[in-house]
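for the writeup, i need someone to sanity check this before i put it in the appendix. the sequnce is what the collaborator sent (i think, or maybe the updated version? ugh). structure was predicted straight from it, no edits. if anything looks off just tell me and ill rerun, i have time this weekend
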Amino acid sequence: MKKILIYGDSNTWGDNLITKKRLADEYLWANKLNNLLGSDYKVLQEGLPGRQAGNKDEIEPYKNGKDSFEAIFKSNAPIDTLIIALGTNDLNKKFLNSAEDIINNLLWYEDKVKEIYEYLPDKYFNNKFPNIYYLLPVNFNVERSFPQESEDKRQELITYFKNNKSNQSIIVDNVTLVDGLHMDIEGHDKVSKAVYEFIKKNS
């Protein structure tokens, strides 16, 4: 059985700011992806609302994705595919990240996996380096926290990954949202199908 680890934020977790509740499991894109891939795959969902790719949140520092990544990666290892589904929260204007900051934070995860592999290739990898993909931030519409400047930075991220990591980058746009930031049921469905098609194409 092939294992896929998704390391993401609230859109992986299934947040909904209108109901203040998590979407039911059957609607979440990670679980929909598992259904599409079938019994030969196991999708491991590790989403946390507010998780950032790297920037420190002084009020809630546990939301820095770098801090918990190694433990989560090793606890689920060995895996065949890692999907980094982060970057949206880093675009929030309050963190003052540049597009370059966010790009570097996203690339950190691949470097970290390489570092772990260098020292323990047999224990956590079964001597096989995993596929590493980036699910880039989808569109949003929350002017207070994510103004046009944030959208401009999101486009910079997409352009960078298109030009430099095209065979690792999953780009899904025009996703329907329930509250301007989080995907609705149709949005989860669209993302699951896009990720499924990408995995099958690249497997």
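The helical segments are 10-13, 29-37, 65-76, 99-119, 148-164, 185-202. The chain has one domain: 2-202.
thx in advance!!
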